[in-house]
Amino acid sequence: MTHSRTGQSAQTGHLKEFTAGARDIISMMVGSAPFGVIFGTLVASGPLHLWHGQLMSLVVFAGSAQFIALGLIAGHASFAVIWATTLVVNLRHVLYSATLAPHVAHLPARWRWALGALLTDEVFAVAWEHYRNREPGTVGPHYFFGAGLAMYMNWQLWTVAGLLFGAAFPGLQSLGLDFAMVATFIAIVVPQLVALRYIAAAATAGALAFFWQAWPYKLGLLGAVFVGVAVGVLLSTSGLGLRRARQSAEGSR
């Protein structure tokens, strides 16, 4: 009886964590909705069949990469160019994975693969906010999974809406609805700017991304990210060195 109650209590706890993750990402889901509709609309008016667009959302699940791939396909780019370009654009997920890795390393492989497949910019922001004040290895996968699955289903829903109804609104992509995604990214970044090193890294990456936006295959964006990360690491290292020097000086008194 005790074992049964313990199992039920654990299941209830897992469900609460799953629900909390799905709840906390709702604001991000609202921001991505117009993005999904516009993607579906572009597919409906482009060279692909409708099912191609939905399959891309189901399998790729990466908004920016899907838009870029769609444009390259419409321009009759080769498979190698499409693959390489989308790979470069999505390399930022390596940074996301490295940040979250200590918090999921204790999970079974099936969980790590599932969470990795659901990782997006929005899911990372929500999951990191949940993990950052907790010791690595002490949190299960259910919160992360709830946020990721909710965003995944949301993206499928709005892709379908764009595929089915986008043709009825031919000027939809010119209405500026894609700014909703920009606003979402602002909402992701701004709460993280809690220290000078974060602000410096974000400002550096943002400025360089603007000046390097003409680089081919979005390489300017990737370069800006790496330089921003380097600035953040340098400032973190120097700050750590200063703190250690102060502690050493205080200890010698």
Automatic annotation (TrEMBL):
Main location: membrane
Pfam families reported in the protein's UniProt record: AzlC
A cellular component annotation (GO) from this entry: plasma membrane
Annotated localization: Cell membrane
InterPro entries the record matches: Brnchd-chn_aa_trnsp_permease
Family: Belongs to the AzlC family.
Protein known as: Branched-chain amino acid ABC transporter permease
